[in-house]
Design brief:
Elements lengths: L7 E9 L3 H9 L3 H5 L6 E6 L8 E8 L2 E13 L3 E8 L4 E10 L5 E10 L3 H32 L9 H4 L1
Antiparallel strand pairs: 1-7, 2-3, 3-4, 4-5, 5-6, 6-7
């Protein structure tokens, strides 16, 4: 397979001061997607159906430079308190799959891992000119997202259930 058609991978994880079940519950709360969207990203939620359960869909409009694109994402691989996944059905990437995994660690903490498998658009030109740009955007975005998550969950009473609106 030519190198420009190979899949790219991006993965980051963070230890959270709550159980996997609590961290997962926070992520499924209404408003989580909006809370996790960095303020410098021009992204508008268009629609969302049935949360993050398998088969549910999210449509967003995102601006990259002067161009607005529509992303239609579908959730799959939902495992309560453990993981959920989404894949791009329509958007700028030929392939985009995002796995969100929550694993308990030491008592009262968990590791949340985000892994994205993607393929850049525009063949060899996308691979040569877009790979570094895409990785920088992902690094910055997930540093923000993980920071927001740690901050929100750090003040959580360990015995309570958390929603986005409770802590942000």
């Amino acid at each position: 397979m030519p190198f420009w058609k190979r899949d790219e991978y991006f993965s980051r994880s963070v230890v959270l001061p709550v159980s996997a079940a609590q961290a997962f519950a926070w992520h499924v709360s209404p408003g989580a997607l909006e809370a996790l969207t960095p303020p410098w990203e021009r992204i508008r939620l268009v629609s969302m159906t049935d949360g993050i359960r398998a088969g549910s869909r999210v449509t967003v409009r995102a601006k990259v430079g002067p161009i607005w694109t529509t992303w239609v994402m579908e959730h799959f691989g939902y495992v309560e308190s453990r993981e959920f996944n989404d894949r791009m059905l329509r958007g700028p990437f030929p392939l985009w799959e995002h796995r969100h995994l929550f694993e308990d660690e030491q008592e009262g903490t968990c590791r949340m891992s985000d892994t994205i498998r993607f393929r850049l658009p525009f063949g060899i030109f996308g691979r040569v000119f877009g790979a570094a740009f895409t990785r920088r955007k992902l690094e910055r975005m997930f540093a923000y997202r993980h920071g927001v998550t740690v901050q929100a969950l750090s003040s959580l009473d360990r015995g309570s259930k958390c929603t986005v609106h409770d802590k942000l």
